[in-house]
Amino acid sequence: MVPTAPQGDLHAAHGSTPATHGMPRPAAVVVLAAGQGTRMRSATPKVLHALGGRSMLGHAMTAARELDPVHVAVVVRHERERVAAAALEIDEAALVVDQDEIPGTGRAVQCALDALDARAHAAVAAGLDTTAVVHDGGEHPLGDGLDGAVVVLAGDIPLLDGAALAELLDAHHADGNAVTILTTELEDATGYGRIVREQGTGDVVAIVEHADATAEQREIREINSSVYVFDAAVLRRGLGGLGSDNAQGEVYLTDVIASARAEGGSVRALLSDDPMLVEGVNDRLALATLGAELNRRILADWMRAGVTVVDPGTTWVDADVELAQDVTLLPGTQLHGATRVESGATIGPDTTLTDVEVGPDATVVRTHGSLAVIGEGASVGPFAYLRPGTVLGARGKIGTFVETKNAEIGAGSKVPHLSYIGDATIGEQSNVGAASVTVNYDGVHKHRTVIGSHARTGADNMFVAPVAVGDGAYTGAGSIITRDVPAGALGVSRSQQTNVDGWVERRRPGTAAAEAAARANGAGEGSDALGAQAQRELAEHNALTGAVPVVPDDDAGSPESSESA
Prior knowledge:
By secondary structure, the protein is α/β, with parallel strands linked by helices. Helix 3 crosses helix 5 (232-240) and helix 5 (232-240) crosses helix 6. It starts with 27 loop residues before the first strand and ends in a 15-residue tail after the last strand. Mean pLDDT is 88; it is low at 1-20, 130-136 and 552-565.
């Protein structure tokens, strides 16, 4: 997560974990997530669109949980199953509440409060002899229900964080308010509910929706952010008297303001000078704008905490990423999910990591990786692909054009070039030659390759799993290893080389290759044979390699005679 910002600052870092200054825990936080969001033009519910590595619902529920409330309730309706599943994945203890066909924020909160009251009654009943409870039709025999502060916020305000909510909650308790509203001022407040204040006291008289506002009220620049703290009893009584006599035919939560004031309660507002903090998302343009702003704030917080970001304009870091002091992020870096980077590591340029752990002083260059672990002082890239299950040990190396998957590569071991290492275990201080492949799949099952410590495998090796290469063993270049190689042994698997002398000049006459061969073979001096020096070198080469030259009388018996010219 990003560094914790100072308390009481509405510019606090997104994702911080604020304290509530010793104030009582809120009884509940209600997240409104029932809307369809038609302006998103999407089959995906609006609150499930993501920025900064979380859905908007995820941002709202994370901020809610930072207050440590007794309950978190999420109100759903449109695409109910998808939104409910997402909410429970974020917080399995959340109470999912269905809004009925009656529209409006007031109705949504009323449904949530009914469910929360029912839960409170059940908790009371669990400790009572309910057979002795007599209900005479008056007050509820198990009490009113939920008691304390109820925080209400919309599920589409992604920059709102726990620090801002904590400050609002503190103001609510400090002033003893019945209702406290988070507000801000906009140059153009079109479409927003206006805050109408009382002359002299500054208390909030009403919140008037734009469609219902007079021409004079539409000149007001202070707007409602749809973030509130209510006293539960005030909210319960106010919701009981709500109607839908307005331009939209909806039950407005803002109408609770009038009932709270009629009871003599204080309704006040906390004005934020940061409009982006409470900006809502209604379309894809707003989603992109707030996504960029969220990223800017995240990077600014990390830079203040000691992280070097060379080019903030091309660097993207999700809200849940963790960075240590003295990390360096080079241009084109994207860090997603639960990625964690330790001190002294350098990431980038042009690197994308998702849910990857990077150890101290490691370097990761032009790499795409997910669900991988990179050890201390290790080196990765350029142009490497780390798939899930990759674990690279301390001071190990995964080099250029190397793909790994479900592979454990020990401390100091290297896979430098052009290789695929999948379903494999490599010990410490081993070196895998270029163009090597662990052949892990037989068409039905995956099998594992094991290469020991201090082993040296040749270039262009195929390891046909299941197979093991022992500690200190070697394999020859070009080998196909199908049987285990014992510790300290040399594994070699090659066909015998044959040379057909003069083939190019006979089968490719007139080509540049044939002319070069003719010059090298002394054809210009009238000889079809190799020169004396060339003959000696060929004999020495054949003696060393075991190659047997084949010099046919003509092309008829050679394997190449059937090839087309």
